[in-house]
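Translate structure to sequence.
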């Protein structure tokens, strides 16, 4: 636990957003003595249910808007990561005059165990889950949380006595930290993302780099040596920097030596596991495994346990997740792929002819970089959601592309187009917020549609 930069007990606190992190922060603060007002601009079934659940616990909550009169009485504010920094509510009085924190910042004030935090544009969910699994294999009690789908505040409430918290953290969460300090921090990569929110990639990078803001001499920073954009991360801090690389030796960190994930310059130096023994496919997952290996060693996990944990890990939901093979056609849920780089990884992961489903809410990056891979690997592209017209305009004439509007129609049309041996890939390159609450809901809906279609075929 650390001293909070503001008073909590007896304070009047606003929580903006009733998603997982906002609801969890409201509960944590209420149980630590704050008087909480939680609100959301939406009035969907989900947000109404979240508000009702908080009110049942004696927490004031509302939907369909933020009450400015109530906000005026608040001492400070917690902002959910889904609220952009230029949202009107954040730049006008009274909110603009109050201290504003992210949920991971608030939760860190009450965490009794050290934090290992993972960020990056791509791979952070897989790496976070992998690091948690490796730690558990090594007999270390951990609570896995953050942007991975379980709020840090929930972990602090439900798992107060663990040895480590392993967190996935996003740029939006890092943007509003003040004292948040990971004992071990991992930065996987940095490519353009969230340009619908950030003015440019430099602004995005600055928020990512904030993971090092409070790190000191007893802390560790693990960086991808293959990504030049990360070379300066932590250089202005007294933190010890470590590196990982798939192809070249590093002075201190992890690399692949003759097919072995190998540690060098660390407390333990030597081979851990052959890359061929990993269950998760693709060179990108070798990189994720290197990062998890390095972070696990710095957490004090034994080398044999690291190897065993890596070998047994089978991946995460919504990231290159095989849903079903039906009549010789494979269906893969990659709903977590919300940017161009993630989709590029997915397209390179398969050799079969592809029917690709793209679309959702546009995030600011062009789709043209996907053209070479789509042209080489995709028989047809089906696009959905708000971004559909933009995607069609950038891909038309290069690949066969059709705007089908909804995920339901995309799966239906994919079934009409497929041939035995094809692979239907949901890898949207967009956020889900136009038609779904989150990427998990989108991926789950894809899974339901695939299974339901298979059941209809059997019934015939």
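Result:
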């Amino acid at each position: 636990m650390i001293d909070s930069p503001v008073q909590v007990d007896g304070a009047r606190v606003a929580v903006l957003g009733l998603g997982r992190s906002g609801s969890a922060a409201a509960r944590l603060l209420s149980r630590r003595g704050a008087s909480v007002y939680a609100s959301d601009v939406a009035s969907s079934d989900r947000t109404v249910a979240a508000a009702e659940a908080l009110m049942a616990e004696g927490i004031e909550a509302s939907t369909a808007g933020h009450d400015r009169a109530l906000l005026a009485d608040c001492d400070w504010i917690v902002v959910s990561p889904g609220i952009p920094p230029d949202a009107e509510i954040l730049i006008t009085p009274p909110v603009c005059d109050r201290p504003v924190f992210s949920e991971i910042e608030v939760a860190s004030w009450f965490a009794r165990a050290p934090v290992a935090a993972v960020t990056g544009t791509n791979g952070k969910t897989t790496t976070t889950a992998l690091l948690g699994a490796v730690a558990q294999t090594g007999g270390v009690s951990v609570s896995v949380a953050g942007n991975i789908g379980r709020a840090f505040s929930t972990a602090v409430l439900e798992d107060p006595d663990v040895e480590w918290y392993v967190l996935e953290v996003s740029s939006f969460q890092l943007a509003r930290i003040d004292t948040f300090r990971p004992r071990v921090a991992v930065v996987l990569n940095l490519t353009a993302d969230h340009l619908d929110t950030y003015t440019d990639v430099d602004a995005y990078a600055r928020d990512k780099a904030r993971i090092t803001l409070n790190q000191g001499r007893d802390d560790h920073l693990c960086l991808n040596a293959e990504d030049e954009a990360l070379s300066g991360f932590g250089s202005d801090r007294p933190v010890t920097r470590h590196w990982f690389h798939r192809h070249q030796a590093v002075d201190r960190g992890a690399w692949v030596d003759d097919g072995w994930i190998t540690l060098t310059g660390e407390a333990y130096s030597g081979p851990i596991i052959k890359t061929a023994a990993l269950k998760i496919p693709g060179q990108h997952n070798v990189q994720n495994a290197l990062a998890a290996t390095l972070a696990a060693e710095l957490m004090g996990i034994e080398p044999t346990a690291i190897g065993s944990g890596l070998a047994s890990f089978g991946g995460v939901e919504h990231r290159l997740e095989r849903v079903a093979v039906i009549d010789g056609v494979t269906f893969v849920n990659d709903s977590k792929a919300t940017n161009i780089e993630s989709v590029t990884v997915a397209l390179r992961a398969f050799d079969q002819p592809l029917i690709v489903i793209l679309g959702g809410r546009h995030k600011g990056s062009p789709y043209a970089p996907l053209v070479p891979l789509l042209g080489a690997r995709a028989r047809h592209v089906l696009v959905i959601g708000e971004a559909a017209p933009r995607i069609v305009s950038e891909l038309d004439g290069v690949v066969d592309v059709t705007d089908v509007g909804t995920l339901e129609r995309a799966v239906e049309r994919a079934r009409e187009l497929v041939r035995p041996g094809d692979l239907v890939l949901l890898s949207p390159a967009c956020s889900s917020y136009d038609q779904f609450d989150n990427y998990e809901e989108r991926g789950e809906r894809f899974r339901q549609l695939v299974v339901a279609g298979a059941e209809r075929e059997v019934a015939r």
